Amino acid sequence: MPLDFIIDRLDALPATRALAEGLPAPGARQGIAGLPGSSPAVLLAALARRLAQRVFVVITPTPTDAERWLADLRTLAGSAVALYPQREALGAEEPHFEISGERVETLELLLSGQVRVLVTTARAAAERTGVPAALRDMRLVLETGDGKARVGAQHAAPLQFATVIQQLEAMGYVRVPTVTEVAQFSVRGGILDVYGFGMAAPARLEWWGDDIESLRTFDLDSQRSGDAIGRVTILPVRTEGRETGGVGAQHAAPLQRQSLLDLLPSDALVVLDQESALGQEVERAWAEAAHHLEVARRLGEEPPAREALFVDPGAWQAQLARFPRLALDPADADVRFPIAPPEPVDRDIKRLRRIVATEPPTVILCDNEGQLERLEELLAGDRATLAVGALDGGFVLAGLRVLTDHEIFRRARRLRRPRRYREATATAATRALKAGDYVVHLEHGIGIYRGIQMIPVGAEGGTLEVAVVEYEGGSRLNVPLYRLDQLEPYRAAADGDAPPPRLHRLGTTTWQRQRDKTRAAIRQMAIELLDLYARRQLASGFAFPPDTPWQRELESAFLYEDTPDQRRASEEVKRDMERARPMDRLLVGDVGYGKTEVALRAAFKAVQAGKQVAVLVPTTILAEQHGRTFRERLADYPVRIEVLSRFRGPKDTAEVTRRLETGEVDVVIGTHRLLSGDVRFRDLGLLIVDEEHRFGVRHKERLKALKLAVDVLTLTATPIPRTLHLSLAGLRDLTMLETPPKDRSPVLTFIEPWDDGLIEEALARELDRGGQVYFVHNRIETIDTMSAVRWTFSCPP
């Protein structure tokens, strides 16, 4: 349902009409108050609709405030709203493509007149940037109309194919064998693939000589060509250092850096959110810039002067004062709106029903369709209009009450923006062997692969191609390529930080003894497992009933979009639970791929059937984390959840175990403490085990006893070979979560030698953006000494 009716209601207020007819002139300021919740965004949407030719700019103190405004305005005003984010880097260039790309593309839209409402921060508005000049001089236009490529203006001279490649490199694009993400290009003969700023999708150009024969999109995953397009405009990635190369670089004028305020039309209406905090943010950024640049110089860099990167606070205030300005909630308001905050609901459905039964009429905005369906069932027959639309906060005005579902249920609003640029999905293909890799030979054990070589054979000068494997003492084994089936890459159960394996020595029996001993242990394990799983197959388990309305409500209320693998995993787990045979399913997925949500849904299904659920985790921290997650997701349902760990005292632990035995606890989450003999359940129906391989032998014996009669769901990110083999062999059912969450941001990892300046730069950058820093030290004995580093880096304790 469109939300224009909300804008209509606020637009009809006398205060709105008076404000629209008496907006401040350039250089004047007007204060407005009485705008709780998201009503400021609704007011701005109403003004933008009335004044179709004006540009509106919202300046906020922090990036979080800017994201909140952006989400509200895009809900109300659609795609004509853009964000100009502040840099996260300390210098003139922003290394993160999501941020630098948005800055470049937003300025491109602003300069071409396609932005009606612009949201930014005080710091971003005070930053000087070379983007406008780069957009003028370095854009690359490729089209099939006349088969030519041009830089800059449409009338510019066409470029040759080799010059286009040179220009892309000058614009900051990286040449790679295959384009898999933004800011890359590849060349294969006369085919040019490129994915850059300003492009809706990656493009593939086929050249004939210096003419463009074909221009099509292509898919980053499959690399297959897609639809034909007539033209593509590529915007620069690098906006500094243009004199280093590219078309016209030798004629380029000295780099001109401008601030956002330099680029706005003189009649742009500037909305100041928390006006007093804006000047403080600019002053803080100005002061911290001096420190950041000094750190950069100590690192051997040559950063620009501070005045080249920022407008000083006094000049910024003077620039701002030239525009017409609306200041929100000042003490001396010129216009006060008759809008009130909504009555608190605090998850009380009876109170919500009383509220919607009174005037004025109520509209409840839900974050998604699932939340809407849930509220429809809860408020069946009540006088309330439900709509999908994410606003930050509700408000009450004449003739309309606006509530939000996250306020009703006291949930934090999740600001979710899709990632601006796609990346190719990582494939699970087997990595090719390379020289230096550890390998295992079936007959000789562990060695180091040294590559493929040609060796002479026979007296007639023949040659044979072999794989060379080096063993302890430098001995080498030549494996003919037709016997490569005896070689396998070495794989360890531990992670990548495990020490390298010990090499075997050729001509000894060490490897044979280890192999025979392992085979015997595997046979014994197989006998035990076959016995266990045979008894499980014969056991008569509990068949859980089909999904209830509450189950569907819980799943539809998930704030994130399920990945296809998550949906499939949930269905497979619930299908197993509805069978009479006890479930034993292994759920494999990387960190953050949604294993906990699948487990939580299974636990809720079990609780609705009157069964108890035990969640077994290897660490106390993980137990507390799961406890918070379960309580937050199940807060709206009568589910009793407890956590058993060493954080609980003896008295609390005894009380929890007593309530478990009497059935007063529905879900218990704990460490190996759950496997103690004094922990007894009244009616355990589901056991969820997180990272089973991290439990010891004694604990696993207790697990075997529990597994005989209850459904078992095992979660793991790194299954040990035995666990995975049991699933592949059919003894355990296997579900893989291979699809990452939609728009998941990548984790960037850098390995560097210790450098005080580098550490200081990283800390300062993160604190400057309002973030948090976790500093992990590797020695308890010296951790106090390391904690003193914060004073060296001028960080708060």
Low-confidence stretches: 248-253
Structural class category: alpha/beta
**Overall outline:** globular
Q: How many domain regions?
A: 5
Radius of gyration from the alpha-carbon trace, in angstroms: 32 Å
- Largest sheet descriptor: 7 strands, parallel
Total of DSSP H or I helical runs spanning 4+ residues: 26
The order of strands across the largest sheet is 3-4-2-16-17-1-18
What's the count of strands?
34
Q: Strand content of the residues, in percent? A: 15-25%
Proportion of helical residues: 25-40%
CATH level-two architecture of the largest domain: 3-Layer(aba) Sandwich
Report the mean per-residue pLDDT as an integer.
83
Can you tell me the CATH topology of the largest domain?
Rossmann fold
CATH class of the largest domain: Alpha Beta
Euclidean distance between termini CA atoms: 49 Å
Question: How would you describe what is shown here?
Answer:
This protein is α/β, with parallel strands linked by helices and 797 residues long. The protein has 5 domains: 4-130 and 258-336, Rossmann fold (3-Layer(aba) Sandwich); 134-251, 2-Layer Sandwich (Penicillin-binding protein 1b fold); 438-508, Thrombin, subunit H; 539-737, P-loop containing nucleotide triphosphate hydrolases (Rossmann fold, 3-Layer(aba) Sandwich); 756-792, no CATH class. Helix content is 35%, strand content 20%. The strands form 7 sheets. The protein has a 7-stranded parallel sheet. Strand 6 (140-143) and strand 7 (149-151) form a beta hairpin. The longest helix has 29 residues, at 510-538. Residues 248-253 have low confidence and may be disordered.
